[in-house]
Amino acid sequence: MAEGAPAWGRVLLKLSGEALMGSQPFGIDERVVATIADEIRDVHSLGVQVSVVVGGGNIIRGLAASHRGIDRVTGDYMGMLATVINALALQDAMEKRSVPTRVQTAIDIREVAEPFIRRRAMRHLEKNRVVVFAAGTGNPYFTTDSAAALRANEIHAEILLKATKVDGLYTADPEKDPNAVLLPEVTYQEVLEKDLKVMDTAAISLCRDNGIPIAIFNMMTPGNIRRVVCGEKVGSVVRG
């Protein structure tokens, strides 16, 4: 593989909703969205087929809403709608950069986005369009991490890119434990057995069962998405 050449042909990038709010207490920071769009455009320009799953925690999270007295199922549907808002913001930023983008949703909102249809999503990717998957799995009680693992499997992504605010997977929360150690590579089983908080167990199990590696890296470091896609040793990797 030539230096700077992509190591993966089709990837799925998982973005948290919290990442989009930057330093704000809630909502969408347009500058952060623009930066993410620039990085995705950079990877897309390499000829890599890029899909994205975005969370909604910057607007509302179903579990948090249920703690405030909202019915859990209702809260989860509210969270799904929040992810659609984020997906549309990302689509707008991508298309302003001349990157053709489609949003597909797991719940039917045809006036603003396509419904999720697996074969159509794969066709978009083959036509070099970025596909943003919104509304999670379309079901309450499932996280957007589970949605990312599910979509990655459905579209035959070669790797799941988990963008975070830390440098990778640690033995403990590095913000709380100064002795936490970065783990460059771990197995799916170690993540499950040690309860390493990277993604929920359903997501980890789904990737394990189908052999999709998970790269965990700091998205706040400029150029990291491209580095991971080009096979550089950045952050942590979970594989068999």
Structural write-up:
The chain has 240 residues and is of the alpha/beta class. Helix content is 36%, strand content 18%. The protein has 8 helices and 9 strands. The protein is globular, with a radius of gyration of 17 Å. The chain starts with 9 loop residues before the first strand and ends with a strand.
Q: Give the termini distance in whole angstroms.
A: 23 Å
**Percent in helix:** 25-40%
Question: Looking across the biggest beta sheet, what order are the strands in?
Answer: 4-3-5-2-1-6-8-9-7
CATH class value of the domain at 10-160 and 221-233: Alpha Beta
Order of helices and strands: EHEHHEEHEHEEHHEHE
Secondary structure category: alpha/beta
Mean pLDDT equals 93
Q: Proportion of β residues? A: 15-25%
Number of continuous helical runs = 8
Radius of gyration, Cα only, in angstroms? 17 Å
List the helices and strands and how they pair.
Blueprint: E1 10-15, H1 30-44, E2 49-54, H2 62-67, H3 72-95, E3 101-105, E4 114-115, H4 118-126, E5 130-134, H5 144-154, E6 159-164, E7 185-187, H6 188-193, H7 201-210, E8 214-218, H8 224-229, E9 236-239
Parallel strand pairs: 1-2, 1-6, 2-5, 3-4, 3-5, 6-8, 7-9
Antiparallel strand pairs: 8-9
Helix pairs in contact: 1-3, 5-7
Kindly list the characteristics that best describe this protein:
single chain; 240 residues; alpha/beta; Carbamate kinase; 9-stranded mixed sheet; 8 helices
